[in-house]
Amino acid sequence: MERYQGKRAVITGGTSGIGLATAxxxxxxGARVLVTGHTKQTLNRAREELGKxxxxxxSDGASLAEINKxxxxxxxxxxxxxxxxxxxxxxxxxxxxxxxxxxxxELFSLxxxxxxxxxxxxxxxxxxxxxxxxxxxxxxVKGLPMISAYSASKAALRSMARCLASELLPRGIRVNAVSxxxxxxxxxxxxxxxxxxxxxxxxxxxxxxxxRFGRPEEVARAVAFLAFEATYTTGAELAVDxxxxxx
Length: 247
Known about the structure:
Layout: E1 8-12, H1 17-28, E2 32-37, H2 40-50, E3 54-58, H3 64-78, E4 81-86, H4 101-122, E5 126-135, H5 148-168, E6 174-180, H6 187-191, H7 194-207, H8 216-229, E7 237-240
Parallel strand pairs: 1-2, 1-4, 2-3, 4-5, 5-6, 6-7
């Protein structure tokens, strides 16, 4: 049985990692999914992996003009949207003293501002019973070094989830967040030299109560739960982190 037959989902940052894993889970179960990315390699990979149920679009989640275009595309393709998974985001590692205005603005432009206006532009396409899910991070509740600006941008998302849950509740739209801990995605290799990334990965595993990284598919299942099963839940944040923010 295809559990999500007839559902329509939009996933920003959906061409790799957690976003792609979620898109595949939904598409494999009958949903139609529109995913966004910004590199040729990941866009092409997503097209291959999602098949007939996937629509892949190049889009910059920090650009309001691009967000408007994406909403228009979703309206043209789907009419209405059952799930908006606001997953696009970036991380930057740097000591507090070294964070520049440009880095700070880059993080907040995509992780916070882009996410906020994505929901604003998509809300008119969402009907009663639909859901928004944000990707936050366990970094928003832990005082970790080297990621102060990133953590702050994710904490902004957590607050956003609560506020928008309240504002969209009269329309029957639920808003929640999934909070991943260390997950096996390419993100560390993108923002750190390989040797440093490998060393940091070892430290993360050792500190984690489960002594391992999570898999993107494990986060994807949590997103699907919040989107379609948790019908009496809104304003919440679900940690998928091996216990690292709880124990």
